[in-house]
Structures are given as C-alpha cells and as structure tokens.
Amino acid sequence: MKKIISIILIFLLLFPACFVQAEEKEKIEEPSGLYALCSCLMDADSGRVLFEKNGEEQRAMASTTKIMTLIVTLENCDLNEVVTISQNAARQPDVQLNVNIGEKYYLKDLCYSLMLESHNDSAVAIAEHVGKSVENFANMMNEKAKELDLVHTHFITPNGLDAENADGIHGTTAVELAKIMRYCIKESPKKDLFLKITGTSSHSFSDLDGKRTFSCRNHNAFLNMMEGALSGKTGFTSKAGYCYVGALERDGKMFVVALLGCGWPNNKSYKWSDTKKLMSYGIDNYEYRTVWKEPKLSPVFVKNGIPKSGEKSDLAYANLYVKCTKQDKEREWLLRNDENVHVSFECKNKLEAPVKEETKVGRILYSLEGTVLKEYPIVTDCAVEKLDYWWCCQKILKQFFL
C-alpha cells in the first residue's frame, strides 16, 4: 500500500510539471526591447491592433504627416495641374527642394518631391494649391481625420514641422497613424496611386520653363530591407524624435507599423530595428483562419400573432436566421496561433404582433479578448400578422359558410 501511495504522489507531482511545460511551449512572447516610445502593429485587412506600446499616447509626428498630405491631395486634385510657388513656400526650412518664387511645377512632380525626399517647401506649395492656403488645407486634413474616426490626431502644418495652436499640438498616436496608413493603402479610392508614388525609388523632373532639373531619391530604406515592403514615410524633428510608418505584404498578409519617438540623434537606425522586429512578429505568429459557426436558432414566439396553421388554438412563431452573406461565412481572420474567437448570441424570446419580415430580434457576436471583431443581426424570416377582431370574424364566417 505504501508503494502504491508513493507512486500516486509521484504522479501527482509530475503531472502539473508536464502541464506547465505544455503551456509554456504554446505561449507566444510579444515583442520586447523596442526603442520607440510609442508603437503599433496593425492588421491592414481588418484594422485590428495586433500589438501596441503606449499606442494611444499623443505625440508629435514629424514628416509622417505627409502621408495625409499626399492622400488629401490625390483625392482632391488632378496631378497634371500646375502649381505656382509662393513666397511662403519658397522660404520653408530644410529639408527643401529649393524652389523659387514664381516658378511653376506640375503637382505630380511636387508629390514625388514630398514623399521621396520629404521636402518642406513642396509640402507648403501643394497645400496652398489644393486648399488655397495652408490653414484651409490643414482643415481638409482634419476633416479627413474625422472621417477616419481619429480622436487624438490634429494637423496644423502639411509638412509635419512642430506646431501648436488653440486646438492642441500637431500630433497623433501610433495607433491612429497606423489607421491613416491603412486608409491610404487599403481604403482610399486613390490607394493605387498612393502606393505607386511612395514605392518609387527615384523620380526626375523639371520646372515648366525647363530652366531647372531635379532628381529625387526615396529615403524609405525599409523598402529594401524586407521582402514585400510596400510603402512608408520617415520623419524627424527635435520634439518628435525619429518617426516611421510603413506597410508590408507577404504570404497574403498585410501589416502596418507605426513608430513615434523612436530615438534621437545619433540613433537613426532604431526605427528600422523596431519596424523589422514588429513586422517579423506579425509574419511569424499570425495566420488566417475561418471562425464562422452556424448557430442553432429556435423559432421566436409571437404574442397575439396569427399562427402559420391558421388555427386560433395554435401559437404563432417566426423562424430566425443570421443576416449575412456567403462571403461573411467564408471570411478569414488574421489570428495568432494561441488566439481563439468566442462566438455568442443575444436574442429575444418573445415578440408582439404584428411583426415585419426581417425584424431584428438579436445579434451574433464574434469576440476576441473582450473586443468585438464582428457582429451580425438575427432577423425573422417572415411577417406575422396580428390576430385581431376582424381576423376572428373572417375565420368564423369562413367556417359557417363551409
């Protein structure tokens, strides 16, 4: 008996150890040791934040601003329009294209100057052309931010130079900067043109008089660092530090990384280290999975409703279904290997006649760690008329004459 007890005790001691080992093996470590004060990794398909560090903290964003400058320009103007350089544009601080007052350029060429070399004078020239003034163009940028439901983003300048006014600092958060990039590459009607400009390695052009020629080289080194790199924009001011926002697509997965306050001189390479670490984390640990589960929905009782049988002694019910498309059911979600989507539904157990077809009676929820990924309405599949005095009279008369 002592031997049996000893064996049982040994087994009980070993079993928890084995169980813990299995858990540790399955656990996925999130990125650590990042240099950026604020960072975000986003699934560009769904907009879900996969990782963030101080992701909702507002900070200065430097020239990452210019992705918004470009997309607002693309959505409001023809790139073959001619831009005349003002005194205000010509006197902007470095980095500059060094345009002169009165010179004329195609808007397209200034957009390449804006994104490849991050020229501040080109940014102001574009803003004055598109918005008629820098202030009006900033209003256009802020309106676009509202459309994207950004609540911690505020634009004052088109080039990202540090600024502040009565409404706050010129700044954003890592999460909202990622949302702007996601819009630019996934949702904007001008996304293809945005990707073409920001992914170009070099661009040469002249002013319209042909007196001066320029050559711009893309300073987004990330385009050549990882396979599938799509787009991005660097930035730096003394207040913002080094900043970056970029996108990558590989194996059918698309990610956006946003970094704010990622080091100061002499730490220029920190942003590339953080970007590669976050992108690699996304590539290595996330895969697409279908999560749809067909719910078993019972018919809902309809009080004072006309039964399908037409017999007053019977009860009235309405069948239910989830209102969604075949694509909804086949949709795949980018999930980490250790993530499981929780499916639940809320539904009324009684309705009052009359009931219209496709009356919403509940919803089915797909949630991950308490956050709702998607919800679909549960509706009735038919109308149920009210059992009233006239229906009863018609029923009695019908029975009498038959």
From TrEMBL:
Residue span, Peptidase S11 D-alanyl-D-alanine carboxypeptidase A N-terminal domain: 34-256
Swiss-Prot/TrEMBL catalytic activity: Preferential cleavage: (Ac)2-L-Lys-D-Ala-|-D-Ala. Also transpeptidation of peptidyl-alanyl moieties that are N-acyl substituents of D-alanine
Peptidase S11 D-Ala-D-Ala carboxypeptidase A C-terminal domain residues: 337-386
EC number of the protein: 3.4.16.4
Function (record text): Removes C-terminal D-alanyl residues from sugar-peptide cell wall precursors.
Xref: PANTHER family: D-ALANYL-D-ALANINE CARBOXYPEPTIDASE, D-ALANYL-D-ALANINE CARBOXYPEPTIDASE DACB
Protein name: serine-type D-Ala-D-Ala carboxypeptidase
